[in-house]
Amino acid sequence: MRILLGVGGGIAAYKAAELVRALEVRGHEVQVTMTRGAGEFIRPLTFASLTGRKVITDLFSEDGPIEHIAVTRDNDILVVAPVTADLMAKFACGLADDFLTTTFLAFTGRVVLAPAMNTAMWNHPATQANLATLERRGCSIVSPTDGWLACREMGAGRLAEPVAIVEHIEALTRTKRDFEGENFLVTAGPTQEALDPIRYISNRSSGKMGYAIADVAALRGAAVVLISGPVSLTPPPNVEVVSVRTAQEMRKAVMEHLEEASIIVKSAAVADYYVATVPQQKLKKTAARLSLELDPTPDILAEVGEKKGDRLLVGFAAETENLMEEGRRKMLSKHCDMLVANLVNREGLGFEADNNEVEIITHGGKTAHAGPAGKRQIAEQILDQIALLRLSLRAVDASA
């Protein structure tokens, strides 16, 4: 694979040399471009020696002012490591004042960003807003880790290890097409159940896990229908997206697409209760206590489990305690072939977070642990387990 590596101007720039070596060991071709700030921490000669290729540092080089267009055509993926807070802000705002930022705007392929910065800068609302913007636009993020920082503090903001970045890139761009011929039906995100014309009951699901599963399934050859509750995410490419809001709407959409599905992944966090009779006017605030009468929403997973036939059904369980016991109970009671269980009361994992850690349970009593890792990496491992389960079920059918 041909990789364009952008190096930002942070102290972690020295790790980009390790990243180049790790990529080349795996057989990838690397072209490096550096910001002016990066040159204050590591010299272009280092990368030129490692790659045997010219390092691009200037937008207006002797090769002409459109070289940034040429490199977008010559490379399969753009990786930027480290991404500083300044670079992240420029990428999010569409500024183009040097070769790297201009190339970022012109690049139409996949983009991987590996941020690194001081903890306070990483946690600042502006940085987090820029991060969310870039994720919505389809950039894949290799989240920084906790550790000893250059500012002599411990905290989040340390550049991910080069091997972790390489694994993320390869998982993102894997070429195996082991789900060709399969039709995936994936649900993602929360539902919103109206209390009145302007208020609703919902939950903290971001939809990131379901969207990652849909994206990876499509990359691995499947035809994918993604039924999504209200989220702030960019739809994955080559995926049919059906937008819904309520549990009733999600049930209707699932049942309409069930017939053509061969593999169903129910990762949505569907509300458990709704108001059966919603007031037509806004509920006014008074000093009196307000009581709501809630009815249970339809159990979509259980209904699909009853109707699935020979389809493969994967459920999700978000728990706060007794993870394995609750996961196995739900898998059996909902007639799932596989269940993905995760604890949602841990900081930085699960709901709203970019990372996750899950237990994957199958009927045969087998379990597989995945994470902690980015949700795309978790999605890859979930699909690997689906592929193994599919193979074992076919073997059973063949011997019957």
Write up this protein:
The protein is an alpha/beta fold. The chain has 2 domains: 2-172, Rossmann fold, CATH 3.40.50; 183-399, Rossmann fold. It is 35% helix and 24% strand. It has 13 helices and 19 strands. It has helices spanning 13-25, 44-51, 67-74, 85-93, 99-106, 119-123, 125-136, 162-172, 208-219, 247-257, 300-307, 323-333, 375-399, and strands at residues 2-7, 29-34, 77-83, 110-115, 140-141, 145-148, 154-158, 183-188, 193-194, 200-201, 223-228, 240-243, 263-266, 273-274, 295-296, 312-319, 338-343, 355-362, 367-374. The strands form 5 sheets. It has an 8-stranded mixed beta sheet, sandwiched between helices. The model has no long low-confidence stretch (mean pLDDT 88).
Short summary:
With 400 residues, the chain is an alpha/beta fold. It has 13 helices and 19 strands.
SSE arrangement:
Blueprint: E1 2-7, H1 13-25, E2 29-34, H2 44-51, H3 67-74, E3 77-83, H4 85-93, H5 99-106, E4 110-115, H6 119-123, H7 125-136, E5 140-141, E6 145-148, E7 154-158, H8 162-172, E8 183-188, E9 193-194, E10 200-201, H9 208-219, E11 223-228, E12 240-243, H10 247-257, E13 263-266, E14 273-274, E15 295-296, H11 300-307, E16 312-319, H12 323-333, E17 338-343, E18 355-362, E19 367-374, H13 375-399
Parallel strand pairs: 1-2, 1-3, 3-4, 4-5, 8-11, 8-13, 11-12, 13-16, 16-17
Antiparallel strand pairs: 6-7, 9-10, 14-15, 17-18, 18-19
Helix pairs in contact: 1-2, 1-8, 3-5, 4-7, 9-13
Q: Which of globular, elongated, flat, extended, rod-shaped describes the shape?
A: globular
Helix content: 25-40%
Euclidean distance between termini CA atoms: 43 Å
Q: Report the oligomer.
A: single chain
Q: List the uncertain runs.
A: none
In the CATH hierarchy, what is the architecture of the largest domain at level 2?
3-Layer(aba) Sandwich
Number of strands: 19
Any idea of the CATH class of the largest domain?
A: Alpha Beta
* Radius of gyration (Å): 23 Å
Based on secondary structure, the structural category is alpha/beta
State the CATH superfamily name of the largest domain.
Answer: CoaB-like
